[in-house]
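the two lines:
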Amino acid sequence: MRAYPRPLARLVEELQKMPGIGPKSAQRLALYLLQASPEEAAALTEAVKEVKEKIHACPVCFNFTDAERCEICADPRRDGRVLCVVAEARDLLALERAGEFHGRYHVLQGLISPMDGVGPESLRIRELLDRVREEGVEEVILATNPTVEGDATASHIADLVRPLGVKVTRIALGLPAGGDLDYADEMTIARALEGRREM
Amino acid sequence: MRAYPRPLARLVEELQKMPGIGPKSAQRLALYLLQASPEEAAALTEAVKEVKEKIHACPVCFNFTDAERCEICADPRRDGRVLCVVAEARDLLALERAGEFHGRYHVLQGLISPMDGVGPESLRIRELLDRVREEGVEEVILATNPTVEGDATASHIADLVRPLGVKVTRIALGLPAGGDLDYADEMTIARALEGRREM
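prediction for all of em together
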C-alpha cells in the first residue's frame, strides 16, 4: 500500500490546497479529522459552509460582514471625516487590533499589479471617490503596505483624491517597535530617517 | 470592530482546534476559505464528510480503510508470516513509504501510557494474540517508537507473544541516515553502539 484509502487521499489533497499547508501538515490535519468525533468534524464543515453563505462584502466599504452593512459602517461613533484605505479586509482587522484608528475604512480588494493583470479598474477606487465626494470626508489615509504594489496604488489614488480638495496622507514608514537598526534593511532605515520627527 | 463577523470568528475558532494551527494560521486559512470559490470550499467540506462516513478501521489489522478489509490485508502477495506491530496507522504509512517491508501489519491504536489512563486492555493486543495464534505468524516485529511508552508497550507485547513460540524482534535503534554523531544524543549513540553489526 503506497497510498491512503481514496477518501483520505482526497482530503489530504484538498487540505494541501490551502496556503501554508504542505504534505506533512495536510496528512496531520486529515488524520486529526479522521479521528475527531463526528460532532467536531461537523462543527468544522458547518463553519466553512456558514462563512460561505453568510459572509459578504459590505456594500459601503467592502469589509467582511454578515449583516447589511459592516459593524464599522453601522457604528455612528466612528468618525466619517477620516477614511483609511487598505488593500484587503485582513489589513483592516490588523489596524483594528492596534485600536488607534477611530475613523472609517475603505477596502480596495487588491492592489494595482500589472504583472498579475490587476489594473485600477479592478479595484474599488471608483467607489472610494464616490464616498469622498458624498460623505463629507476630510482626510484619506492611504494604508496600503509599503511594497512596490502598495506604493504604486497609493500614488495612483492620491492623484485622484487630491483634486477633490481632500487631505491625502500615507501611513508612516520606519523601524518596527522593538526593531533593531542593525537588522533593518537600508530602505527601512532611509525611510525612518526621512520620516524623523522633532522630540 | 475588535472581532470578525460571527461566522468568520466561528470558523477561525474551529480551525484553531486542529493540531499545529495557531491563531495566525487559522485566520489565514479562514480568509482563504472565505475568498475561495464555492466549489473549492464545497470540495473541502465534502472531503471531510466522506472521510468521516467511509473511512473505518480494518477489522483484521486496524489500519484505515474504505473497504471491507484494508488494501494490505486484502493483498495475497503480502507475507502473512511476518507481522509488524505499530502504534498508529500513520506509522504504518511511514513504513510503507520506506517500501522495505512486505509482510502484514497490526495497528495497536495507541501505546500503553498509565499517565493518560491507557492500559494494555485499551489497545488491540488481544486481537494481535489471536492473529498470531490463527494466521501462521512466524515473526512479530515490534515497530513502536523508541520512546518510554513505545518501549514499555513493546516489552509488554514481547512477554505475551514469546510463549506462543513465535520469534519477537524490535526495530533497530541507531543514528538516522545522514545523521551526525556530533549532534546525536547519548541514548541514540549508546543504542547505535549496542546494535553494531559485523561488516
